[in-house]
TrEMBL record:
Record-annotated BIG2 domain positions: 438-518
Transmembrane segments: 20-42
Official protein name in the record: Copper amine oxidase
Keyword Repeat listed: no
Keywords: Membrane, Transmembrane, Transmembrane helix
Amino acid sequence: MLGKHGKQLEDVKGSKAKKWAIVTLAGVIWIAPVLGAGQQVWSGTAWQSVAAAASTSTSKLSEEILTSGAKLMKYKYTTTRSGSKVNVLADVIQVDLQNPYVKLDVMTGKGGNLNSKQSTGGMAKENEAVAAVNGDYFNVSGELAPIGGQVSDGVLISTPSELKGMYALTVTKDGKPMIDEYSFDGTVKADDGSTFALRGINKEDYTVESGSVKYSHANSMYIYTSAWTSTKRPNDPSTTPTEVLVQNGVITQISDKKALDMTVPEDGYILRAHGTAATWIMTHLSVGQTLSADYKLVAKTTGQSVDPSNLDMMIGGHTILVNGGKAATFSRDIASSGIGGIRARTAVGYSQDGRYVYIIAAEKNSNSSGMSLTELQSFMTSIGVWKGMNLDGGGSTTMVTRPLGEETAGLTFNTEYGTEQRQVVNTLGVFSTAPEGKLKGFAVSGSQTLLVGQEGKYTAKGYDTYYNPIATGDIKLTWKSSNNGIVSVSNGVIKGVKPGTATLTATSNGASSSIKVSVLGGSELSSLTAGSGLGSLKAGTTMSIPVTAKTKDGQSVTVPAESLTWEFIGFKGKIAGDQLTVSSVTPGAQVGYAIGRYDGYSTVVVLTASDSETVWENFENVSYPINFTTNATGVTGSASVTAGTGEKAGSKVLQLSYDMTAGTGKMYAYAQLNGTTGREVSSAATSMSMDVMGDKSLNWLRAEFTDANGKTVYADLAKAIDWSGWKKVNVDLSSLNIAYPAKLKRVYVVNVEEGQDERAMTGTVAFDNIAFTMPSKSSEVGLPTGTASLVLGQKSMTVNGTKTAIDAAPVLKNGTTYVPIKHVLDAFGGQASWDSKNQRITVIRGGKLIDLVVGQKEFILNGKRQSATVAPYVSGGRTLVPLRLVSEQLGLTVKWEQKTKTVTISS
């Protein structure tokens, strides 16, 4: 007999007593039923797979052991989207099912119970998992039970739903994995010998996709065990239940057409029946009689019966992705399931020989763009997955892993919402079953990236022969570097000296461990920003200018003060930490420059004779109309100036409330300023800030401008409103190319279609103290204006009608005009300096600083790396720069007259 229920109840009770050694993958997205009768499944086709493979590549970036039998591998997957190459980071946990010291299992909510949810990291910590990922899909507004089947530690927790194309992964107690569709087959048997079919165990109500009865619990019988902690079994208003309490195999209560108001006791289960099933109960069962239940799972592909007690674990998922080592036709309609698009992804699969299980997570964060399901298929086949299926993804995608020597698992990478982990109903986990071993070594942890002059902090923790943490007390380390002077080691202090990569090796009691440390050079930066980049040119002024570097691979790094050198123009000052103090101002100076350099890469703070940030709107005296508008039928809301709350009590704010529950598609809720026209922003602004009261809806927050040329420009205030209460939001406008005067037309909330169920449909946000940072017009005071012209090959320049001699004529090379920049600055103001050691020209004019290097097409403009098609070069001892490139970056206009070979520059 398969799956004797009395034995299952003992197993459930036992597993709770010993605390499951389980980790679960839990999903948070409810999928609407997909296919009706006669509908065709949308699929990825063979030619799509071949085309994708031809334009993709996979490379392994790193590999590290987590525990005996499990390791973490990070990959870079490269593909082409819209003609451009895109890199995606993916993390894979490989589990060796033949290793006796590692196992896979599924964790459930809190305390191992259904009807509860918890973050992936929380479940891993509670159950002492080595690693875990989120798991099955579930109805976020339901009773917090997985949609698919679940077996944990050999106990059948929940049976599969009757939905087509929903796959599940099982692993048997002898370590054999299988991915298939599973159905449930069970019966209960009364004392008089009559039987009735069971439809499932611990299921919430749902709409089925085939058969004459569309409601899962109509005319049906289900078992609910003590794992189901809710007093409702399920909370289904469409069916009136008849319930039977069975304890130790004996019927102790029968409640006809009324639910038993109780949770399920540890020593029993409750039968929940409706319609014909309820009639059978009232006909054949009585209190005091015995009742038995037999059940099994059936693999649909093979027809094989599976006894749940022979399984280590089972976790449900969604569509099949890979079969036979190739991309499979999707078994669910992806579009109607709401899981399409480019998202973070979670999947699981196994190798052809069944030895290895691969737990996969594709990142979508500041370092990685996410994957489509077709791209996920391509990646999975590239790493050796023979059969694989999709798990819940998007905002649910979360992987936690335990580094060597650490006691608990932590986030492997940032989720779509940063470090926030969504709460889910189950997770797939990796567990060590090894005994405690002897000290094998220790793991060194610390910063793998340093800046020149920055000190790094490093620690060591021990691990045993099974790569599990072991207590070693305080480990005393002796350090040495591989080196070439990349880092210095002195009395245990590690410091970056010059750009490059070094291997740091720590030794203790004959054991050693190494870590690679990269010291970043200026060539590896994409930007260098000092505070807001603006300040007041007044003696005694002190301003905060924390310097942040952004690397070409997207990392943001705080630059320590000792890593920077500073030069002041137009004033005298000093730097202490991240504070700049103006000691005195050069007589007559209207603008000053604090130029900071990190390994030659520049950033600039432009100081002007007047303050630069202005509060544009505080909503205290609004005289123009503010209206609520939307793009979608069914979306309602309001936008108005109202009294503030909390820290804004006593002042007025702009409040935007919205209700999108009746809308469809991509939905917007706008607070429209000044009718349909918007309110004017008169001067060029480099940044905008505002106080925003968030509603933690995870919706997108944006602002919309119309510029002087009629162009619509969008500024992202927050990709996800992941906070509640008031917070100051800052937005960089300098890269948006807004032509001024512009108009701020509206601020608004967006609920996009992808992962729509993850965000709130209703909410309220508010805005206050909208401010713009505007470079003072005084930065242009004193700069000459007018027109200048040069003719190719002639050593003369005509400025405002006056012809003057110059010492080098303009040169035309490969269609580009080159001149010594000195002549342009003589005519229009500014200054230039030459660094012969680094072959660098630095040009300053108004509020602009440009660094150009001979032979390099990239240049630095106010701390940001830019690309050009031409580069400066040296000719006859003179350094020549591309005239149009430099002049236009300095705010000048350049025109070319082909007939006379004349260049005209104007300001």
